[in-house]
Amino acid sequence: MTAGPAMMRLAALVEARETGRARPDHMVALSRDAIARLDGRIHAFAHVAEDPAVSAEGPLAGIAIGVKDIFDTYDQPTCYGSPAYAGNRPATDAAIVALARRAGATIIGKTVTTEFAYFEPGPTVNPHNHAHTPGGSSSGSAAAVASGMVPAAIGTQTGGSVIRPAAFCGVAGYKPSYRLLPTTGMKHFAPSLDTAGLFAASVADVAVFAERLTGRALAAGPVDASTITVGVYFCPQLDGADEAMRLALEQAAEAAVAAGFTVVAVAEPRPLMLAREAHGLIQDCEAGLACGPDLDRFSDSMSPRLREAIRSGLMVSPQDYDDARRLAKRGRGAARTLFDDVDVLLTPSAPGAAPEGLASTGDPRFNKLWTLMGTPAVNIPGFSDAAHMPLGVQAVARFGHDRTLLSVASRLEQAFAEAR
Amino acid sequence: MTAGPAMMRLAALVEARETGRARPDHMVALSRDAIARLDGRIHAFAHVAEDPAVSAEGPLAGIAIGVKDIFDTYDQPTCYGSPAYAGNRPATDAAIVALARRAGATIIGKTVTTEFAYFEPGPTVNPHNHAHTPGGSSSGSAAAVASGMVPAAIGTQTGGSVIRPAAFCGVAGYKPSYRLLPTTGMKHFAPSLDTAGLFAASVADVAVFAERLTGRALAAGPVDASTITVGVYFCPQLDGADEAMRLALEQAAEAAVAAGFTVVAVAEPRPLMLAREAHGLIQDCEAGLACGPDLDRFSDSMSPRLREAIRSGLMVSPQDYDDARRLAKRGRGAARTLFDDVDVLLTPSAPGAAPEGLASTGDPRFNKLWTLMGTPAVNIPGFSDAAHMPLGVQAVARFGHDRTLLSVASRLEQAFAEAR
């Protein structure tokens, strides 16, 4: 277990409110106090609501949520991490924000995103060591949960922007099946990849959050480990993982065996290798289309790397884009076949712990394939390296099997804790 | 041939400019003059640009385009057909608007859309008979082309909002394969269905427009009819088509035979019947999510039918939505199998000609299946009923086979004209 800050537990808060032991306004006040105390150092918030509405009713009443500032909010500025949108006030909420409000949640603030959810970082630091990146692009959402300021946060992933910051900050990050959460009203970067995701302290917490936000049966259920096959996923990217991360993956597999799961090794099929390579071109081309209008208007206030990404996206030929999409489609076919034999795959969430320095948000190499495949994935926190920085193991399941994923991952999370 | 107004021919204009016989500024002036002369009666435009930029360069230089007012434009108001958005000025263009500008087109105005591209009509009339609906939701785009005000226009289809108004107004309307045209920066209604589409005088014209807008090889190419199988599609909805429409479909089939195509009858497979039935629930549920934020803020300025649609969408259970999506997925599988045997399907574009009255935009029963399937479709104009109102025949092809569709449909369009 990493010696991190004390986190707010969403499932416990929800239970406390439902059993009359906690009042929504007091719960939200806890978050307000924590933000006032901590965010001067963490910089997880781009904006904090001055007097946020607190609902007495609803499945998420009293839950203070940080929303990545890539989603529109009608009552708080929405700047997409970009000076071009300083002071921007959208007319309405993004769909997922409205969903959270309808469930009774309090939108306590907008969390820091990298510029347009691409790579140019914001000011957020890693709560476990302020000299290290929190990861990105959902930097503030991961750090706000990790530092104990909020029990839940919303982010997005186009490459690895949920799973990676979750791993670096030692929290659970859940990237659902494509389209399970609505993205209308987010600033799109690559629409066929852009996926909304959720953060909470543990897998069990993030599953409760998902269930209460969507009305879907997603809370982690009981798991009979003897009926579940867990595959340890061997892909070429593993060569780029550091020693600590490989050790964590090994320990995770051992803990799964000890918990009674059937554990097998799975070699990455070639169509999935090819699909991973196609991710970049699909992202570039779609970013050229989706953010070309920004380049036309706001080029001067863009970071050089964002400007270059959009420009190069505009140069991709339709033929190359179509070829890449065909590779992705074949990859999805191979993924379906893969999940005929295993229920859940385990891979690193990132090549290692959060790198030192704030100029880079780290490497999405372990994430982008699963974003492109649209399969659900969750970062299971709990491991750490020699410097006590969090390491995350990523669990992935078949498209649409989100509840299985969250249930198995939650059971694995317990198993990992028991094994320490 | 319907005795309609004289239309501007995009392909001819493009050729005239490229051979030095027409100057971009003069071409755009033609549209400005036509709008000034005609739009007081047609009401196709929600806004006309005061002094629109004209490019000297680019594959669409000199082409004045009407853009459905469901797409953002940074330099013209964008109101989504809704009083809630009166005076709305987005920060940037929608992706497809930026694409058109980059190709040198002139955005001459915003065309009338029904409210949020749903059913509440705007003021546009049918250019062939002002007492009849132009269809919707892309009412203004279809009418602007049909009345000879612009050579091209951009619209969207979630149910039948491109094909139906194109048929009612006697122009070509092309709904491409899902995602072929970008939708970032449109006001989404049901994101998994929302498809951008194009209008021009003829299929050949709309294909040239598509090619020059996207850089894809989409212009209609030569067709060896002897190698092409055309299927006349028999679905239960045909019972709801009127006599004139059924006659037009028969004449279309005969003309195709005369032109040397192999023509076969195709009965709708059951998975496609079930998929059509699933469209409504998918649309409703997604509209609840995508437009729920508008309901929360602007309920008072919504029409009762839009308000009701969003409200009922918010009541759809995730289970019912997932079931509907599964039916859609099975339908897509059945569509793939269907196109193993035929290259292009022919069906009515609408149950008949444009109904009298402006309170309803007509019936999308022949369109929504193909929107849900994501397959490319085009309205082939050229038929008419006893009252000389246009009737359209819809051609549909396999996902991604847009060029085949446009080439065959263009050849069929000639064959229909020759048969008259």
From TrEMBL, chains A, B:
Pfam families: Amidase (PF01425)
Amidase domain segment(s): 55-406
Keywords: Transferase
Signal peptide segment: none
Superkingdom of source: Bacteria
MF terms in GO: transferase activity
Family: Belongs to the amidase family.
Protein's recorded name: Asp-tRNA(Asn)/Glu-tRNA(Gln) amidotransferase A subunit family amidase
Source organism per UniProt: Hoeflea marina
